[in-house]
Design goal:
The structure is a single chain. 48% of the residues lie in helices and 10% in strands. By secondary structure, it is of the alpha/beta class. Strands 1-2-3-4 form a 4-stranded parallel beta sheet, sandwiched between helices. Helix 3 links the parallel strand 1 (42-45) and strand 2 (91-98). Helix 2 (23-36) packs parallel to helix 3 (60-88) and helix 7 (190-201) packs across helix 8 (203-214).
């Protein structure tokens, strides 16, 4: 949902420009938000960078960017806004990731590693918030169709035909519902929930299915003696 559409529907919105991987920028952002809007009721960590690619196809700079956003950005933003939320005694933190946080996604090595880290952050912060009135929700989605891919000239993630590429409004509405109901984890679409469960039980089979369904299967460069006969 854009700022204009929020205002058109009678709501209030404000955009702030900030480098979420820069601590000084984050502190200035927190001060401005506190002065102009107060303490957030909901804090969403949704920054992301990098492309879906095999690790050897990524530059070292790309790897740094994939770690900085989402993980470093989420740590910085939460660090800056959490103290005031704790003092007030209410609030929810939303950490957005993708299903690669629970099972390996073919051809997305760096992104998968960074998103597993987001899952770790969520579980740690949720545990730390026990005994307070604050909570955290992990939003786990499949690929989402946004302008990010076209703006950065990147391929849209390859997904199996039975896992749809989600619309941003679908993810937004489901996420808000999960945050308001204080759910620990939201997995969308529903088909991904079954994969998540199956990966705990038969991980090898799920990995095989994902490779076959996405078509992202490496061809071995190792020649087995006698295989050329």
């Amino acid at each position: 949902m854009s700022l204009c559409s929020i205002r058109y529907d009678g709501g209030r919105s404000q955009a702030y420009v900030c480098d979420l991987t820069n601590a000084d920028d984050i502190e200035r952002l927190q001060s401005r938000v506190a002065e102009e809007a107060g303490v957030p009721d909901i804090l969403i960590n949704n920054a992301g960078s990098g492309r879906w690619a095999y690790l050897e196809d990524c530059s070292y700079d790309e790897i740094d960017e994939m770690i900085a956003a989402p993980l470093q950005a989420a740590l910085y933003v939460t660090r800056a806004f959490l103290p005031a939320m704790l003092r007030r005694g209410t609030g929810t933190i939303g950490n957005v990731t993708f299903i690669g946080a629970f099972l390996p996604w073919p051809g997305a090595t760096g992104c998968t590693a960074a998103r597993w880290a987001m899952r770790g952050l969520h579980e740690a912060i949720r545990a730390d918030l026990r005994g307070t009135n604050l909570t955290a929700t992990l939003v786990v989605a499949s690929a989402v169709q946004t302008e990010y891919w076209s703006k950065h000239h990147m391929r849209v993630p390859v997904t199996p035909f039975w896992i749809p590429v989600l619309r941003p409004d679908e993810v937004a509405h489901a996420s808000l519902d999960a945050l308001q109901n204080r759910k620990s984890v939201l997995v969308i679409p529903k088909g991904m929930r079954l994969l998540r469960v199956l990966h705990h039980v038969i991980p090898g089979w799920v990995d095989h299915v994902m490779r076959q369904a996405t078509g992202l299967t490496r061809k071995s460069a190792i020649q087995v003696p006698g295989s050329g006969r």
